[in-house]
Design a protein that fits this description.
Belongs to the peptidase M28 family. The protein is mainly alpha-helical. The chain has helices at about 1-25, 35-40, 45-55, 60-75, 80-95. The protein is about 60% helix and about 0% strand. Helix 1 crosses helix 3 and helix 1 packs across helix 4.
């Protein structure tokens, strides 16, 4: 179970890291220069996490963990029970791994709700 937990966390980090690397373009960044510099100071930490995911003890297992996670929770639409269950699971896993300051925060996210539908030709 510990391997699954760490692999899950690794998959989550890999997704976040790869998303940032794939979309971050310095010429399109609208953040103030001071904030960009502060963020840039975290690069060694990001690199260490990424290196552990790629070459560490759980290398090659992160995608399997992600597969199991998505199979377990399916689509996680805003406001859905699946999303709430997935968030609860992620929080429990991170706490079990001993991560500090694990918590959720309220967020207002608008979502579509099906109402009565009709059509006329």
């Amino acid at each position: 179970m510990l391997r699954v937990k760490l692999a899950f966390l690794g998959a989550l980090c890999a997704i976040l890291i790869s998303t940032n690397h794939a979309t971050a373009d310095q010429s399109e960044c609208e953040l103030p220069p001071g904030l960009r510099e502060e963020i840039r100071h975290y690069q060694p930490v990001v690199d260490a996490i990424f290196q552990h995911i790629v070459s560490g003890e759980y290398a090659g297992k992160t995608w399997q963990s992600l597969l199991e996670f998505t199979d377990r929770f399916g689509p996680r639409l805003t406001g859905s029970k699946q999303l709430e269950d997935a968030i609860d699971f992620a929080v429990e896993e991170m706490i079990a791994e001993g991560l500090d300051n694990v918590h959720t925060e309220e967020a207002i996210v608008t979502h579509w709700q099906r109402g009565r539908e009709w059509a006329e030709l």
